[in-house]
Amino acid sequence: MADDLSFFHEGTNGKGILLIHGLTGVPAEMRWVAKGLVKRGYTVYAPLLAGHGVDEATLIKTKWQDWLDSVLSAGNDLRGKVDSMYSAGICVGGKLGMAASLKQPSLFTANALYSPCFRYNGWNVPLHYKILSFAPLSLAEIPIFRNYSFGETESIGIKDDRLRKAMQQLSTEGVLDEFPVRALQQMLALSRWFKTALPSMTTPAVIMHAREDDLSHPKNALYIDKHIGAPHELHWFEDSYHMIHVDREHKKVASLTADFFEKQHG
User: I need a labelling partner for 209 at 20 to 30 A (CA). Which of 69, 144, 235, 237 fits?
Assistant: First the structure.
């Protein structure tokens, strides 16, 4: 817990939640949902994923397995401070939490996955993003694409104007406002592995997704609902875009997360 961007808040119920940020993001984006979970008594720890929080050059030196190692390391660190532990993450972060449960089954009692995404295919995604989602991983090694980056969409995944402005202020604290092709290709590599692993997953999971998700079509959540081997729940959000843990319904995200962890798997 030594870097400047990770954060930790001690709770009162002896239970811990590892909060995992998304691709090109930083732990600060998890503060909205963290606040609600701390109120429910949970200890929360939001670590910085490998390669994140610095610049594009640093990010593209890492692979999704490095991000997963960050989750496993942080999870084992937190486990020594609480009696039981869970994970909750946005998009890539949620998949990494579930992947960590498969790699180390005793680590998390249950997982929460916010806005799952196998490829960027929501209603506000530019056509070239969608085309890239079907490209081979080797595309990122072609010189013309190797150092290319895609900019954020105008909404940055947040429906509420006020909350969007608050999130944009984080850009000076390590959030990247562009997606390097090589980082996107690692996200796609993780997605392909994740799909093959879904039937083998046994750790209980709650999946949350906005019906108006601008970056990730709801069918991404439905795919997990259909193929995951673990007991699970699926919840829909009606007044948010992709960043449900930041947007208008972030309190509902925290509440449903705590409810799921307590109801059947406390």
Answer: 69
